[in-house]
TrEMBL record:
PANTHER family to which the protein is assigned, alphabetical: UNSATURATED RHAMNOGALACTURONAN HYDROLASE (EUROFUNG) (PTHR33886)
Protein's UniProt keywords contain Hydrolase: yes
Recorded GO MF terms: hydrolase activity
GO annotation, biological process: carbohydrate metabolic process
Keywords associated with the record: Hydrolase
Keyword Cell membrane applies: no
Protein known as: Glycosyl hydrolase
Gene3D superfamilies registered for this protein in UniProt: 1.50.10.10
Domain of life: Bacteria
Organism the protein comes from: Nocardioides gansuensis
C-alpha cells in the first residue's frame, strides 16, 4: 500500500439501503421525477442530452405510452438552430431522433450525413476501433457512435451499418476488455490500455452490446457469427461484474475496488449495468440466473439514490481518462448529471419490462 492515497476512500459516505420493493407505481413515479429533473439540465446537442432522451424513450416504450412530444420538439428545435459536429459524441442525439421518428426522411437524411462524417473524419485504432480522441480508444464510443450506427442500419435497411456496430463492439473489446476478468477499462492512451476498470465504461459497453443484440434479433439483419461473438464478450463481462457486486448493489467507481477508490460509489454505472443485466436475460440465452439477480440488486441499489426532486445523486461528473486509479477518487459527484438521469431511466424501463 506504500505510496497510495487512501484518504478519499476512507472518507467515503456509507451506502444507502436498496429500495425494498419495486412495483409499477413506484417505478412510474421514479420515472416521472427523473424525467422532470432531467429536462432542467438539457442545454445543447451533445452526448449527455442523448443519454437522457434515450432513457425517456425507453421508459415510454416500457409503459406502452406515446413518446413525450417534448422529445421530438427539442430535437427539431436544435436541428433548426443548426448542429455543429465536431466530435464523435455529437452523433449520439441522432440515435434518439431515429427512435422517436424512425421513418422521417428529414432525420434519416441528417443521420446519413452524420454517418458519412464518422466514416470520413474520425481516426481509428489499428484494429479499426473508432477513437474517442486521436490515439485513444474509450468505452464511451460504442454507446455514443455504435448505437447510432446500429439504429441507422436498421431504420434505413443498411445491414452493413448494423454490422459496423458489431465490429466496433468487438474491436473495443479487443482493446479494452481484460481477457482474464472480462471487465472493461475506461480507455487507452497512445496505444496502451490503462487498467482502470471504470464503472460507467462497463455500463456503456454492456448497454451497447445488449442494444445491438436486441436490434439484431428484431431485424434479422446481423450475421450469426458476429451475434455470437458479441454475446460471448457480454456474457463474460456481466458474469465478472456479478462476482464483484457488493450486497447493496452499487459498485465503486472502479468496479474492481482498487484501494484508492474502494467504497466511493457511483450510481449511474450501477443503473446502466443493472439495466443491461436485466435485458441481457432475453438476448443471451445461456446467461446465469445469478446475473439477472445481480441486475435487480443494481437497479434497486441505484434507484435508492434518487432524491425527492428526481435527481440521481452520487453520479460522477463527465470523466476524462485517468492514467492512475487515484484519479477516479476525486471526480465530483455532488451535482445531478444528464447521463445519470438517462441511465436511471434506462434502469426504470428495464425494471418495468421485467417485473415478475
Amino acid at each position: 500500500m506504500s505510496g497510495l492515497d487512501l484518504a478519499n476512500a476512507r472518507l467515503a459516505t456509507p451506502p444507502r439501503e436498496p429500495l425494498a420493493r419495486l412495483t409499477r407505481p413506484v417505478l412510474v413515479d421514479l420515472a416521472e421525477r427523473l424525467e422532470r429533473r432531467g429536462w432542467d439540465l438539457v442545454a445543447d446537442w451533445f452526448w449527455g442530452e442523448a443519454v437522457l432522451l434515450q432513457g425517456i424513450l425507453r421508459v415510454a416504450a416500457a409503459r406502452e405510452v406515446e413518446p413525450p412530444p417534448r422529445v421530438l420538439g427539442w430535437l427539431e428545435e436544435r436541428r433548426r438552430a443548426g448542429i455543429a459536429i465536431e466530435h464523435v459524441n455529437h452523433v449520439a442525439p441522432a440515435t434518439a431522433a431515429l427512435m422517436v421518428a424512425p421513418s422521417d426522411p428529414v432525420w434519416l437524411s441528417l443521420a446519413d450525413d452524420l454517418e458519412h462524417w464518422l466514416a470520413g473524419t474520425v481516426t481509428r485504432a489499428p484494429n479499426g476501433a473508432i477513437e474517442h480522441w486521436p490515439g485513444g480508444v474509450w468505452a464511451d464510443t460504442v454507446y455514443m457512435a455504435g448505437l447510432f450506427l446500429a439504429r441507422l442500419g436498421v431504420q434505413a435497411g443498411r445491414p452493413e451499418l448494423l454490422a459496423e456496430c458489431g465490429r466496433q463492439l468487438l474491436a473495443h473489446a479487443e482493446v479494452l476488455q481484460d481477457p482474464g476478468t472480462g471487465l472493461y477499462a475506461h480507455g487507452s492512451h497512445g496505444g496502451v490500455t490503462i487498467p482502470c476498470r471504470w464503472g460507467r465504461a462497463n455500463a456503456w459497453c454492456a448497454l451497447a452490446s445488449v442494444e445491438f443484440l436486441e436490434l439484431a434479433a428484431a431485424s434479422g439483419l446481423a450475421e450469426r457469427g458476429q451475434v455470437e461473438a458479441v454475446r460471448d464478450v457480454l456474457g463474460r463481462q456481466l458474469r465478472a461484474l456479478t462476482g464483484l457486486q457488493p450486497e447493496h448493489g452499487v459498485w465503486s467507481v472502479l468496479v474492481d475496488d482498487q484501494p484508492e477508490t474502494r467504497g466511493i460509489l457511483e450510481t449511474s454505472a450501477a443503473a446502466g449495468i443493472g439495466a443491461a443485466m436485466l435485458r441481457a436475460s432475453v438476448v443471451v440465452p445461456d446467461l446465469d440466473a445469478a446475473v439477472t439477480e445481480a441486475g435487480w440488486r443494481a437497479v434497486r441499489g441505484a434507484l435508492a439514490y434518487v432524491d425527492p426532486d428526481g435527481a440521481l445523486t452520487r453520479t460522477s461528473a463527465g470523466t476524462v481518462l485517468q492514467l492512475v486509479p487515484f484519479g477516479y477518487s476525486v471526480i465530483r459527484d455532488d451535482l445531478p448529471q444528464l447521463w445519470g438521469q438517462g441511465l436511471a431511466l434506462k434502469a426504470v424501463a428495464a425494471a418495468l419490462e421485467h417485473l415478475p
